[in-house]
Amino acid sequence: MKSSEKIIDYDLTSARSKRKLVNLWYCMSGYRVRYLFAILSQGLSTVCKTSVYLLLSWFIDNWLILKIRTFPIAVIAAGLLLLAVLEGMFSYFANSTANYTAERIALRIRNNLFNHIQRLSFAYHAKVDTGDLIQRSTSDVDAIRRFFSEEAIGIGRILFLFIINFTAIYRIHPTLAFSTLIIVPLVFLVAVGFFRNISKKYDAYQNQDAVISSLLQENLTGVRVVKAFARQEFEIRKYEQENWKKYQLGKRLLRMEAFFWPSTDLLCGAQMAISFIIGAFFAIDGKISVGNFVAFLSLIIWIIWPIRNMGRIIVHMSRALISFQRVMDIFKEDQEPLDKGSYLPQKDPKGYITLDHVCFAYQNEEEILKDISFSVMPGQVVAIIGSTGSGKSTLMNLLPRFYEYTSGSIKLDEIELNELPRSYLRKHIGIVEQEPFLFSRTIGENIAYGVSEKKSQSEIEEAAKAASIHENILSFKKGYNTMVGERGVTLSGGQKQRIAIARTLLKNPRILIMDDATSSVDADTESDIQSALKNLMRNRTTFIIAHRIQTIQEADLILVMDKGRIIQSGTHQDLINQEGLYQKIFKIQTRIEEELEKEMCCD
Amino acid sequence: MTEDFFDEEDFQGKIDRNIIKRIFQFAIPYRNWFFAFICFTLLTTLMDSIQVILNKFLIDQAILTGSKSEAVRIVRYYGLTILVQAVSVFGFVYIAGMIGERIWYDLRQKMFTHLQKLSLSYFSVTPVGWIMSRVNSDSYRISDLVTWGLVDSSFAIVNILVSLGFMLAINWQMALIVLAITPIMIVTAWQFRLRILKEYRNVRRLNSKVTGSYNENISGIRVIKGLLREQENLREFNELTSPMFQSAYRAARLNALFLPCIQILSAVALASIILLSQKKIDSGMITIGGIQAFINYVTSMLWPVQDLARVYGEMQQSIASGERIFTLLDTEPVIRDSADAYEPESIAGDIEFDHVSFYYDDGDGTPVLEDFSLKVRQGEVIALVGSTGGGKSTIVNLLCRFYEPKKGVIRINGNDYKTYKMESIQSRIGMVLQVPHLFSGTIRENLQYGNLNASDDQLHEAAKAAGADEFIQRLPNGYDEQVGENGNLLSVGQKQLISLARAILANPELFIMDEATSSVDTITENLIQKGMEQLMKGRTSFIIAHRLSTIKRADRIIVIEDGRIIEEGTHNGLLKQKGKYYHLYTQQFRQEKEKDYALQL
C-alpha cells in the first residue's frame, strides 16, 4: 500500500466538482504556489526586459545628448548586462517551473488514470471502447500538459508584456500610450476569429490524414488479397484519389494562413506607423525626449506583436479544457474496492463453497441466473455443462466477485462472499480462460505474471514442466526469454493455453475455474493439455465449464444448466440413469462413437 | 535486417551529402516555385532591415533636426516597406506551404506505388507500423525540410548578413564586435538544440511504450483482475512514466535555459557597443540614430540565430528520415518477371511441383518444404491436411508465386511458371483466406474487387452463388452497407461468404482456399460449403482443409508433415492405412459431431 501512495501522490477520483476550473485547481494540488511563482517570475522577467530599454533611454538622453557623465560608462554597460542576466534568470525560473508543474501534473494524471482504469468494474469495461479510452489517456492528457506548460504561462507572459510595457510608455507620455491601442483590439479579434476558424479546417485536414493512413494500413494488412487479385493498379488509383484530396485540403488551409499573416502584419504595421508619427511629432515638439522616443520604438514592438499570438493560445486553451473534461469523466466512474471487506480471514481458504438461491442480473436487465443452489467440498471437482448463453460463465464470474450477485447467498468456508475482500478471493482463485491472454513480455515473465513475490527460474521451469510446455519453450532460440507477441514468436493456441496453465500453477490457488480450456486448441495438442490440466486440478476445488462429456465423467458433481437455471445435478452415474438433457447428450455422444465406428468399417 | 533496424528512433547523427542531394531532388520538379519563394523570403528580410534604417533616419534627420515634414516623409516610406512586406509574406507562406504539401503528396504516392511492387517476403519481415511511419511521418519531415527549413534558414542567413552589412556601413568597429559574437551565439544555440532533440526522442520512445501499456492493461483487464496484478502493474507503469517525466522535464529545462543564454550573449554585444558609443558619439563617428539602429539589430538578432539552430538541429532528423525512406524506395522486389516473360492465353491445365524445396529467408534456414513433388491434373480438387506448421500454406504461397522455389520447378501446363508474367498467374487465381480480409467501403465495392467491370446482375449472381445474397439483402442498406475498417462490422462467417462471392466474381481458372478453423454457425457453414462447391466446379482447386465434408469431397487428399507428403490418396484408401490421416480424421469427426449436438442443446 505504501508504494502506491507514493506513485499516486494525489487521488484524482476525489476531484469531482461539477465545475471544470475547480477540478483543474484540484489537479494542481501541491504545485499551486510553485506555478504562481512561475507566473510571477515571468512578470519580473518582463520588468527586467522593459528596464533595459528605459536604461538605454536614460543613457541616450543624459550621457550622449546632455553629456552629463558622473560615473564611468562601464557602470551602464554592467547594468545592462546585469539586467539581461536577471531577465534570463527569471525567465528560466518561470519556464522551468511551469514545465515542472505541467510534467508533474501529466505524470499524476497518467498514473492516476492507469490505476483507475484497471480498478474500474467489469461492467464499465464491457461498455467502453478501448480506442477511445486510450485516446483520452494519451492525447487528451497531452493537451492538459500543454495547457500548463505553454498556454497558461503564455497568456500570463502576453498580459505582463502588455501591462508593463504599456505602463512604461504611459510614464513617458499618456497620449502616446493610448495611441498604441488604436488597432490592437482589432488585431486581437481578427486573430481569435482566424484561429477558431482554422481549427475547424484543420480538423477536416486531420481527418483526411486519418483516411489515407487507414487506407495504407488496410493495403498493407491485405497485401495478400491485393496480390491475389492483382489489384495493384486499382489500389494505387484509390490511394491517389484520397492523397490528392488531402493535398487540396492542405492548400485550402494554407490559403487561410497565407492571408492571415500578412493581413495582420499590415494591421500591426499600420499601428506601428501611426505610433511612429505621433511619437516623432511629440519628440520634435519636445513633449518627450529623444531617448524616450528610442525606448518607445522598442517597447511598442512588445505590445503589438504578442497580441497576434493570443488568438492561437485562447483557441488551444479552450480545446485543452475540453480534453480535461474528457479525462475527468473517466474519474467520475466508481472503482471497485479491492481490499474492502468486513471480514478478513487470517488463513488460506479450505475451498468449501455453498450457493443458496443465488440470482444475478446486469443493471436493470432480465435475470441471467435464477435460483442457483449447490455446495462443493474442498478438493472436489464440479463440472458445469450447458449451451452458450445458459449462464455457465456468468456463474463463474460471481466467485472472484467480478460481478456481484443480486440476491441469495454464496459462502466460502461459511463466510458470505461479499464480506470478503475481493483481493482475498482473487488471490486464491485461479482462472484458465477459453482464449488465454498473454502479455507482450518474455515467456518466463508471463508465467510469473500472477505472483507478487519473486519466483526463481527453477520454480518457473517446474510449473512449465507440469504444464507440459517446458520442452516447447526450450526449443525457442531464447528459451524462457523469448518475447511473446508482435516482436517475438507467434504461439499456437495450444502453446498459449499451456503457458496460461503454467501461470496458474505457479500462482497455486485453492480454487480453480477452467473455462472451456480445450475448445480453441488443435486436436493434435489436446492430449498434452489434458495432462497439464490433470496436474493443475490436483488438490484444488475445481470448477470446469465444459461441453464434452468425456472430460467431466469423473467430476464429483455435474450441474446441467439451461436458461440461467440448474436443471439437473448429480454424478455421471446418477445423471445417465435419469431422463433429461444429460442423458440425451450422453446418448448423442455414444451415437457419435458408433457412427465413427461405422464410418471406419463400411465406407 | 536486424531487429534494431526497425527501431523508430534509430538515429545516425552524421550528415551524408548524398542523402541531402537525393532529398533535394524531390524538389527539382518545382524549382521555379522555389526560386519564387526564396525571392519573397529575401524581400521580406530586406524590408525588416530597411525598417531599422528608417528608424535611424527618423531620429537623425527628423527628430534631431526638428523637421515634421521629414518625419512624415520617412514614415511614409516605412508604410511602403510594410506593404511590400505583406505581399512578400503572403508570397512565401503560400508558395512554400503549397510546395511542401505537394512534395509530401509526391513522396507518399511514390512510396505507396513502390510498395505495391514489392514481394510478399518484404511484408512478412517488415512491421506494418514501420512502413506506416515511413509513408506518413518521415515523408513529412522531408517536405518540411525542403520548404520551411529552407525558408527559415535562408531568412535567417540573409537577415544576419544584411543586418551585419548595414551595421558595417554605420560603424565598422562596432559591427566587428557583433560579428565576433554572432558565431558563438549560433554554435551555442545549435548545441542546445541537439541536446533538446535527444531528450525529446527519449520522451517519444517512452510515450509509445506508455500507450502500449494502456492498451494491454485495458484489453487484458480480465487476467489482470483475476491475477490481482493491479499493484504491480501500477509500479511497472510508474517505471515508464517517471523516466518520461525526467526526460521531458530535462528537455523543458534545457529549453528554458536556451533563450536566456542567447539573450545574455547578445547583451554582451550590447554592453560592448555602449562602452564604445561614448567615444564615437563625442568624435562624431556615429549618430544617436545609429546607436539606436545598433541596439535594434543586436536585440533582434536573437530570432534568426534561433531559427538557424532549429533548422540545423532538425536537419539531422530529416536526414535520418531520408535515409529510411530511401531504404524503402531502394528495396527491389525479390520476385520479378524475367525480360521475356509472356502472358499465356490461359493457365488452366496440369500443375506440377517437381522436386521443390523452399525455406523462408527470415527464418533460420531450415527447409519448410523439402524435395516436394506433386502432379495435379486439370480440374482436380486437392485437399491439403496436416498439423500447423507442416508446410501447407507454403505450398499455396509458392503456387501463387508470392514466393518462388529455392530448388526445383513448378510447372503450369508443362511450362516453368516463371516464364509467365506474374500478373497473368495471379489475376487468374481465386483466393479465399482463412482470415478473410475486406477493405473499408461498401459490400458492393468489396465484391467488385474480384472484377472491376462486373455489372450489378453479375454481382448479385455471384453473391447468390456464394450464398451471401440472403444476408446482404437483410442488411439495412443491402449491397451499399458499409463493412467498416478491415470489414470488422461483419461477422467472420459473413466476411467469408463475401470473400467467396468476390472470388466467384473473378471467375478464376485456379481456386485456392484456406478454410477457417474458427467456428461459425451451422447455417453459415452450410452456405460456405455450397459456395465452395460452386467455385471448385471444373476448376483445379487447392484447399487447405479442416472440415470433414470438404476433405471427403476432394479428389485427392495430401497429408503433409514437416514439409513432406507422408500420405496421399482418397478418403477411403487413407482410412484403411490407419496412419496419420486416420488419427486426424477420428479426432475431427468427434469435434464436429459434438459441435453439432451442442447447437441442438
The CATH homologous superfamily name of the largest domain in chain B equals ABC transporter type 1, transmembrane domain
Strand order of the largest sheet of chain B: 6-7-8-3-9-10
Q: Report the sheet-strand fraction of chain A.
A: 5-15%
- Strand tally of chain B: 10
Number of domains of chain B: 2
Mean pLDDT score of chain B? 87
Description of the structure:
Chain A is of the alpha/beta class and 603 residues long. Among the domains of chain A are: 15-173 and 288-332, ABC transporter transmembrane region fold; 353-433 and 509-602, Rossmann fold, CATH 3.40.50. In chain A, 63% of the residues lie in helices and 10% in strands. Chain A contains 20 helices and ten strands. In chain A, the strands form two sheets. Chain A has a six-stranded mixed β-sheet, sandwiched between helices. In chain A, strands 2-1-4-5 form a four-stranded antiparallel β-sheet, with no helix packed on it. In chain A, strand 7 (511-515), helix 18 (526-537) and strand 8 form a beta-alpha-beta unit. In chain A, helix 10 packs antiparallel against helix 11 (290-332). Chain A starts with a helix and ends with a helix. Chain B has two domains: 3-208 and 257-330, Up-down Bundle (ABC transporter transmembrane region fold), CATH 1.20.1560.10; 336-428 and 540-601, Rossmann fold. Chain B has helices at 17-25, 31-63, 68-117, 120-125, 128-170, 172-219, 221-226, 230-282, 288-300, 302-330, 392-399, 422-426, 443-448, 456-466, 469-474, 492-505, 522-536, 548-553, 571-577, 580-600, and strands at residues 351-358, 369-376, 381-385, 407-412, 415-416, 429-432, 510-514, 540-544, 556-561, 564-569. In chain B, the strands form two sheets. Chain B has a six-stranded mixed β-sheet, with helices on both faces. The longest helix of chain B has 53 residues, at 230-282.
